[in-house]
Amino acid sequence: MRVLGIETSCDETGVAVYDTARGLLSHALYSQVKLHAEYGGVVPELASRDHVQKLLPMVDRALKEAGTAPSDLDGIVYTAGPGLVGALLVGSCLARSLGVAWGVPSLGVHHMEGHLLAPMLENPRPEFPFVALLVSGGHSLLVEVEGVGRYRTLGESIDDAAGEAFDKVAKLLKLPYPGGPALAKLAEQGDPKRFKFPRPMVDRPGLDFSFSGLKTAVLTVLKSAPQDEQTRADVARGFEEAVVDTLAIKCKRALQQTGLRRLVVAGGVGANRRLRARLKEMTAALGGEVYYPRPEFCTDNGAMIAYAGCCRLAAGAVTETPVRARWPLDSLTPA
Ligand code: KG4
Ligand code: ZN
Predict the structure, then answer these.
(1) Considering every ligand atom, which ligand is closest to the CA of 295?
(2) 196-202 long-range CB contacts below 8 Å, 24 or more apart?
């Protein structure tokens, strides 16, 4: 089975062709980062308009690079949510129109299911079941995964998502958008011992997260600390340590609670080098293993959507879904 996958849920246009026998045949990615940078965050209307301009030529290119004609396709899959509705509509309208024009089925995919299954594009790929940590700009979730569509949320952020916390603290540090990678870079020069920020909610049982208090703690320190470069780097490092520690403690707890030993990390924050190193140590100490997608498949991309949609189509999924801003992962049905 061969599918074309389309991702337009936020500020990345992603297109890919995935084949069940041959794997990923092509993928194209365009980031709107520069477009939104001067506003300090994603402007939904600008995002939609840019997807309209970029998407069709990228579909053309991805098909050419994959040596694939429309008649070779068994399906066109697209992100149906959660995300910015205007942006999602661009991908869904094109996918469904091409589906009608080329006579192939189209199918809406859950964006977080795409992130969650992204490590399946790598070699070695994790076996089911596993615990997944999904940490992106909009979500922080710990999920027990038994198979495609068989998800049980173990814990989630009760306020800011991990990526959102990175972005907000980066803004306090006057770093350019998107904040996560810029903050991680600044933190490399920082002293991890100078500022000790709280590890929110680790002293209570449970697997939920909270990051907004951490952001307030950073703000309080910044108000009284000297404004030199080294201090900014030390604050960035202290903050990064606090987030990484918190996530590692919760992941360890989730593995212990479920009795599972495989951990999968997905979503934009999964590109963070310090988080990757810490989780590797933690899982190794438990006799387990951690799996990541390559960094470019941690952030939004078309390959993960093509893969997730292909699993669903191969299992016989046919029902179309309307695009939606919110869509709980637990509401998905097994493939
Ligand atoms: O998954 P993603 O591309 O988009 C969403 O679906 O949200 O994640 C983007 C988030 C942003 O908040 C960004 O700041 C964060 O991931 N991020 C990072 C790093 N790279 C991206 N956070 C920390 N360290 C990084 N290296
Ligand atoms: Zn995402």
Answers:
(1) 1
(2) 196/238, 197/221, 197/238, 197/239, 197/241, 197/242, 198/242, 199/242, 199/245, 199/246, 199/249, 200/246, 201/246, 202/245, 202/246, 202/249, 202/250
